[in-house]
Amino acid sequence: MAARPSLAWRIAFDLLYPLLFPFVLLWGLALLALRRSSLREFSQRLGFGPWPAAQRVAWVHVSSMGELAAARPFLQFWKEWSREPMVLSHFYRDVPGALKGDRLFDGTFFLPLENPYAFRFLLRRLKPRRVFFFETEIWPVLLARLAARKVPVCLLNAYIYDKDMPSYRRFPWLFRPALDTYRFIGAQTEGDLKKFVSLGASERRVKVCGDLKYDAALPAVGDAKKLRKKYFPGLPEGVAIAVCGSTHEGEDLDLVRLASRLAQPPRQKKWKVDGVLFVVAPRFIERASAIEGEARACGLPVSRRSAGEKAPLPKGAALGVFILDTVGELREVYAAADLVFVGGSLVAHGGHNPLEPLYGGRRVFIGPHTFKFARMMDELKAYITQTDLPGLEAAWDKALCGKLPPPDKAMGPAIRKEFGEVSRKLAEQVEWAD
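^ thats the sequence. predicted structure below, dont judge the formating
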């Protein structure tokens, strides 16, 4: 059983929060006034609900859709095995829209900010049988409340970046008791295990289980033509699709300028394709307007998925920009692509998951900043080309002047076979930890 945090630690949070609440309230009202949050989000962030009706649940918390996509195979496996109702809390706003019609969860809500009073009420309402956190979710106040109620908590697919270790070590009085509340920590690597133990987690409760991202469902690679028609109806077969996925500020506009340079007449004359549809999928949809403005400034035809507009390639145009400013569609668009670049890697964000395009049978280009996926980059180096912006421009220019390869149907299954089956291992460990 996990150790309960000290009474002094819990009392300190209970006394501190009322002093901070007026500032939290003002922050929430400002977001509401600026229309950057809904009334439902505002109410749940502050701890007022509404909350899911289900009780005696397995409570799952993720920050974003990326975490949920990685966690889904395990959660599906666990729900089938345990038959427990399951509710989901989340931090970012991209989750609710992507879960419409999803039957895995019996309710979803925004996680309240660290608020002992809201957590006390929420726990009485949900009566959780267990809680699953993923990756690097360490919420000291919530963990204290869960430990006080003797609710088993597991941290799965867990990792800590090297650059974050000094911050955790700076506040041992906060993180040591928080980590000691976990009943089980499923670390991605041996290095992650050592980090958690050095910060205060019990060594007997931390096991290396691998990376859940490898268990993601394999898309039907043979359906590339169907997906092309689904997302880009009317696009001529001879037009190549180049996708830049999960791009960030600081690289997205540079990628549009790269597209403009590729479409210059001297280069275009050497192409073996009838044109290029250049798809940009920003990690944060708010970037769509800036991307559209840059495309227009470069003289490129541009349209947006959210507006219901068709992919732009007017007669006589060599290249058009299509902004995928929606949630939950990038995985299928990757499978329809001819060329793929994974963003967050030309800036110091640390990259994004390259498995989605790889599982779709597409080799991947990625930038030099990939510290968030360092182990995966090493394991998958045979399938990934890591380069900077000039290198990407040269590689894609060369690709457009040659014969574009078809999807590799064997790639995804081969990767899955070598590194997958993590969900089953995790479920066995979680069952043991009960």
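Residues 7-210 form a domain with the Rossmann fold fold (CATH 3.40.50.11720).
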